[in-house]
Design a protein that fits this description.
alpha/beta; Kinesin-like protein; 16 strands; microtubule binding; nine-stranded mixed sheet; motor protein; cytoplasm; ATP-binding; about 675 residues
């Protein structure tokens, strides 16, 4: 049912239906009162072209823009590009780079003609209601556009072919550019090398020119020097002739001097031989003198009173030292009757020894008497010096010296060592070289102890053994033998040994030595120019003090020590007595002391015994016992000197290829 208008022209909706905003097809809007007499106008509305038509229009617009851009390139530029791409032409590097960077020209497309309207419709628009006319116009336009698209497609294909040709040409040009660039780089490197070589050659040329100049200057100087040297050479030749004449004269004098030197060398050789024979003769005579004095000698020494002893005893009335005889000693003892009231006369005991030293004698005076024996040790003879006597009689002081030792109070051991090293230095100019080895041990309760080793470090008990079956030389395995090169080293060993020695307090002495201390210095000498060799041992013994059990009141350990000391001292007396009586068996092995010293108790060995006695009158009986034992030893020595005493044992020291020491 159609809408009906009201009187004022508004549309009234139908009853029962909703109003619609969409236009009703086939109906036209009513005209107003003012438009009623006008012809109907066609409504203008945009019409969308079909999809194929829109695509064709876009393609035409794109082609038209490319053609416009190509047409904008100047003609001269396109011509220059074509000229630059002409084959066979050499392009500079800068031009090649410009060509590479320059955009490739595109052929100009012809301008697209504006759309042509229908012939009958030029300058005139069809009415909106003339749809057929409009459709006809559109078809005309589409056909014209199709023609243009076909024409533009042809032009596009032509442009693509031209572009491909340009790309191929570009590739060829780029390869040519790369080849030319590498060739150019190579040429540039060669040019730089040539420039560098030219520079070096220029520098070398300059140096050579300078050298030529310098050499020329030097040549001129040398020519001047040559003239000077020529004149100097003439002068030298004259002097040389004079020198040759003088040299010939000196040669004659030199021959005479050589003859004199040969004579002097012969004389010196004879003198050395004579000195050697004199040295050997000195040794022989020295040994002969010592044998005449006695290979076994006994010295007696009386120590002075100590400060605290002077309060108990004034003077030495029981000891007499004859002024005219330094080998005699007289002891006197007051004898009382058995009743105890009457006093008998003094009983005197006369003793004679090789030397008697009063309390006033110093250590130096005592050593002067044994210095020759020490020299015998350096000459190659075994020497043994020991101190014997009761405890507290000054044996340790005599052999070692006091604790605070000074050059005046040094004992026999330090002085003997000092003399040995001094004598070795004096014999060095005569071709003698010496090597010294020292050891220090003690014999305590018939066991050996190394005094150079502290008590915690001592190992198993030491034993005395022979060096070999064919040798009579003895040694103690595991005993420390110290090589020494000076007397100072020996003094240090003495201090160590003194600190390790066994001492104890007894009723007779507050610091009694409870062992025999034995210091041995092995002296080995070579005279290689004469193939001489000597070996000797210097033994210095500080015997333990002899004691009587009824006076020492020793008990326990002290008692065993006293018994061992007295036993070894008794064995020493038995050995000396057996040697004097020519007994076939000598009891060396009864005591470690005599077994260790057996090489120094016979033959050409030298032995010296110090008998030390106390100056106290209360020790008179002990002094008498010591003096009687020493007197027996002295008497045996006197018998040996008369030719009826000790047998001569084979000498333990030797000299190879030399004058052997005399033996009786």
């Amino acid at each position: 049912m159609e809408q009906k208008g009201n009187a004022d022209g508004r549309q009234v909706p139908l009853a029962g239906k909703a109003l619609s905003q969409l236009p009703v097809p086939g109906l036209r809007a009513k005209r107003g009162p003012s438009d009623e007499n006008q012809p109907p106008t066609e409504q203008k509305r945009a019409r969308r072209l079909p999809v194929p038509t829109r695509r064709v229009a876009a393609s035409i617009a794109t082609t038209y823009s490319k053609a416009s851009a190509a047409a904008a390139v100047p003609r001269t530029q396109r011509a220059g590009c074509r000229a630059s791409l002409r084959p066979g032409r050499i392009i500079p590097a800068a031009s090649v780079a410009d060509v590479v960077r320059r955009p490739v020209p595109v052929a100009a497309a012809p301008k697209m003609a504006a759309p042509v309207l229908a012939a009958g419709n030029e300058g005139k628009k069809r009415a909106a209601w003339d749809l057929k006319g409009q459709l006809s116009d559109m078809r005309t336009k589409v056909s014209s556009y199709k023609d243009k698209v076909q024409r533009l497609d042809g032009e596009n294909q032509q442009l693509k072919r031209q572009l491909q040709e340009q790309v191929v040409q570009n590739r060829e040009l780029r390869s040519q550019v790369s080849t030319l660039s590498s060739a150019l780089h190579t040429c540039q490197e060669q040019a730089r090398q040539r420039l560098h070589e030219v520079k070096e050659l220029s520098d070398l040329k300059q140096q050579l020119e300078e050298q030529v100049t310098s050499h020329s200057r030097t040549i001129r100087q040398l020519e001047g020097t040559k003239r000077d040297l020529s004149s100097l050479l003439e002068t030298r030749e004259v002097k040389l002739k004079l020198v040759e004449e003088g040299l010939a004269q000196r040669e004659c004098e030199n021959k005479e001097l050589r003859g004199q030197v040969a004579v002097q060398l012969q004389v010196m050789t004879q003198q050395e031989e004579r000195l050697h024979h004199l040295e050997m003769e000195r040794r022989r005579l020295h040994n002969l003198v010592q044998e005449l004095k006695g290979n076994i000698r006994v010295f007696c020494r009386v120590r002075p009173l100590l400060a605290w002893e002077k309060e108990r005893q004034t003077g030495l009335e029981h000891l007499h030292f004859p002024l005219q005889d330094n080998k005699a000693l007289v002891l006197s003892k007051v004898e009382e009757s058995h009743i105890g009231r009457d006093r008998k006369g003094d009983v005197k005991y006369d003793f004679s020894f090789d030397r008697v030293f009063s309390p006033a004698c110093s250590q130096e005076e005592v050593f002067e008497e044994i210095a020759l024996l020490v020299q015998s040790a350096l000459d190659g003879y075994h020497v043994c010096i020991f101190a014997y006597g009761q405890t507290g009689s000054g044996k340790t002081y005599t052999m070692e010296g006091p604790d605070d030792m000074s050059p005046e109070t040094m004992g026999m051991i330090p002085r003997a060592v000092q003399q040995v090293f001094q004598g070795a230095r004096e014999l060095e100019p005569k071709g003698w070289q010496y090597h010294f080895t020292a050891n220090f041990l003690e014999i305590y309760n018939e066991s050996l102890r190394d005094l150079l080793v502290g008590r915690p470090e001592r190992g198993a008990e030491l034993e005395i053994k022979r060096v070999s079956q064919s040798s009579e030389e003895l040694h103690v395995p595991n005993l420390r033998y110290m090589p020494v090169d000076s007397e100072d080293e020996v003094l240090k060993l003495l201090q160590t040994a003194k600190a390790n020695r066994s001492v104890a307090k007894t009723a007779l002495n507050d610091r009694s030595s409870r062992s025999h201390s034995l210091f041995q210095l092995r002296i080995e000498g070579w005279n290689r120019s004469r193939d001489l060799h000597s070996v000797s041992v210097l033994s210095l013994v500080d015997l333990a003090g002899s004691e009587r059990l009824d006076k020492s009141f020793s008990k326990g350990e002290r008692l065993r020590e006293t018994q061992a000391i007295n036993t070894s001292l008794s064995t020493l007396g038995l050995v000396i007595m057996a040697l004097s009586n020519k007994e076939p068996h000598i009891p060396y092995r009864n005591s470690k002391l005599t077994y260790l010293l057996q090489n120094s108790l016979g033959g050409n060995s030298k032995m010296l015994m110090f008998v030390n006695i106390s100056p106290l009158e209360e020790n008179l009986s002990e002094s008498l016992n010591s003096l009687r034992f020493a007197s027996k030893v002295s008497d045996w020595c006197a018998a040996k000197a008369d030719g009826s005493g000790l047998p001569m044992l084979p000498c333990r020291s030797f000299l190879l290829n030399s004058i052997s020491p005399p033996s009786r």
